Design the sequence.
């Protein structure tokens, strides 16, 4: 059943942006809640075996979500999403950032602009995520950060997950 | 000792070094000029970054330039594929979360 849900991943190198569309078998209200309620975000935001842990959440324009990505060894890496524009149940725009252990933004690291759109498709919901970097250099830097660690682990856990799901 | 990328970026000076050499290759001396630390300290950071395979050395005459280890587009494609898998994994988890939420409401 899961395979029937729409999933598009479009990378636009010219514009340093990535568009990810995904259909969910739930109404718009519930999907919006899953994206904006920190208790629910903690349940799915981190790819296994990492877990997400909310430090603080202030979901309003000008507010931000501060969260930790916790490694299987228990190491915490802080990230935050600053909310710039919120249209309840329709869309939000945010700016993501890597953080120092004290929660302040690490300005040496690139930040990406995030946009999430929520569209009703009958009793399903289509979410369009658009992630945009300022330059290709920034994208490359993020690539270097993500290449070797966590991501490889996530892929291993994905294979595991997929084999469970396909049974 | 095993090095990983998070160890590489755990230190603010190393993060700044990455940001600097992401723009163009630099010698340890040129890098040291940007920081309020000794040339030795910069060399140590560069050694750790090299061990993490984040930077590589390029000997030009008597000078050694450090640059980010990048095979640009190939790496990007590889990364995009991994990034896509992360989102797939994330969304599969969200499917389960949404199914649970729907059941709770019934």
Sequence:
């Amino acid at each position: 059943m899961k395979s029937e849900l729409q999933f598009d991943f479009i990378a636009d190198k010219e514009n340093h942006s990535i568009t990810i569309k995904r259909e969910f078998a739930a109404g718009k209200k519930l999907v919006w809640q899953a994206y904006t309620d920190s208790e629910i975000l903690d349940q799915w935001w981190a790819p296994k075996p990492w877990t997400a842990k909310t430090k603080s959440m202030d979901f309003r324009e000008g507010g931000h979500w501060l969260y930790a990505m916790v490694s299987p060894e228990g190491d915490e890496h802080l990230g935050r999403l600053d909310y710039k524009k919120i249209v309840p149940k329709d869309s939000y725009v945010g700016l993501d950032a890597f953080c120092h252990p004290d929660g302040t933004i690490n300005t040496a690291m690139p930040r990406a602009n995030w946009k999430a759109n929520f569209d009703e498709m009958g009793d399903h919901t289509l979410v369009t995520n658009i992630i945009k970097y300022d330059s290709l250099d920034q994208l490359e830097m993020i690539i270097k950060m993500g290449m070797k660690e966590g991501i490889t682990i996530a892929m291993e856990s994905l294979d595991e997950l997929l084999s469970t799901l396909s049974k | 000792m095993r090095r990983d990328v998070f160890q590489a970026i755990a230190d603010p000076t190393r993060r700044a070094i990455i940001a600097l050499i992401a723009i163009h290759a630099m010698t340890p001396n040129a890098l040291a000029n940007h920081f309020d630390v000794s040339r030795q300290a910069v060399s140590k950071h560069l050694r750790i970054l090299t061990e993490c395979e984040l930077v590589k050395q390029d000997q030009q005459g008597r000078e050694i330039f450090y640059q980010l280890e990048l095979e640009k587009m190939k790496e990007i494609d590889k990364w995009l594929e991994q990034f896509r898998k992360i989102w797939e994994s994330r969304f599969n988890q969200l499917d389960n979360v949404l199914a649970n939420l729907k059941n709770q409401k019934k």
